[in-house]
């Protein structure tokens, strides 16, 4: 009897603990009018409106300005007096929801498939809307993300999700917006352990292997193009069929690579296949910014808080690269792929770019409207303009400044979403324990 009682008590304790960590629910749809008043509104397109008002109806922005009257009656009003109002921030390339624990727990990871060519793999089907990480991103103003498969030559299609959902169907914002290709490296940079063991490879070998791999990738696309050009097929090839939206320009080709030679190879894809190409990584993109602009190639800079690519670069080159792309007229966005901080520092990457040449509004645009344009969702989000979804973040300080940023309210499609997450709950738990 005592043993049974102990078992029941233990189960109740575990259930209570689980509930304490799992009581953050997606917000319900809000039908009606919402007004956000008296705030400093950063529209996301470079415009700033002091003491402005945003009118929202049924999750859509209706008006933004300074002369909007708030009616009496059944409307919600949030007074943003003294606060900063921003569009929801967008994480443009991430394994969020596909990788929960980076190292050591394979069962929590579903971001990579076997084989080199996997265009039929769809990240949205594996996306985990219950990830513990999404709550920590919302707390820093990140409301949307482009979930991307990784790790193979053609890893599959990405999808844009909003970060307050019960499941992947609810989360889906734009499905299969692009195909992702890892460009082979033309140089070998062995890690320090390989160098110590004398395991470095000749760079000439790396370049030769890269050219051979590149030709096999082009042949794959050529075969797919020929297959799609046929009126009928004896056998169905799902990998080739998955590339049809890419050839029809309904998708973009996201080419992952940092080296100039990799980006030059991406330009060849534009010329041969007519793909709309986006460079992901692009740490050396500043060297050929004019060429990228001429070929209408956008860039997603992966991790600004990083060391320079080569020993000849300026030590602050990663911080200056956004300004150099802006100056050259290249459409670019900023990203955060840092595994340890799990992507929450995206706005502070933009803040660093603002300290090295960009204006504050240009830096904000790099994580809002620019990202939306690159991902193909600028018609719905990225700026606080009439007709777009009410994806809105309110902060007590500058959202790009790590010291003053404090997000106090967030709306996704007009829904007042929770900023609570496992970390804030643990903070409250131990504050209570120690009587603080």
TrEMBL record:
Span of the signal peptide: 1-20
Residue ranges occupied by any Amidohydrolase-related domain in the UniProt entry: 353-409
Residue stretches in coiled coil: none
InterPro entries in the record: Amidohydro-rel, Metal-dep_hydrolase_composite, Metal_Hydrolase, Metallo-dep_Hydrolase
Top-level taxon of origin: Bacteria
An example molecular function term from Gene Ontology annotations: hydrolase activity, acting on carbon-nitrogen (but not peptide) bonds
Pfam family, one: Amidohydro_1
Keywords: Signal
Official protein name in the record: Imidazolonepropionase
Organism: Filimonas lacunae
Organism lineage: Bacteria, Pseudomonadati, Bacteroidota, Chitinophagia, Chitinophagales
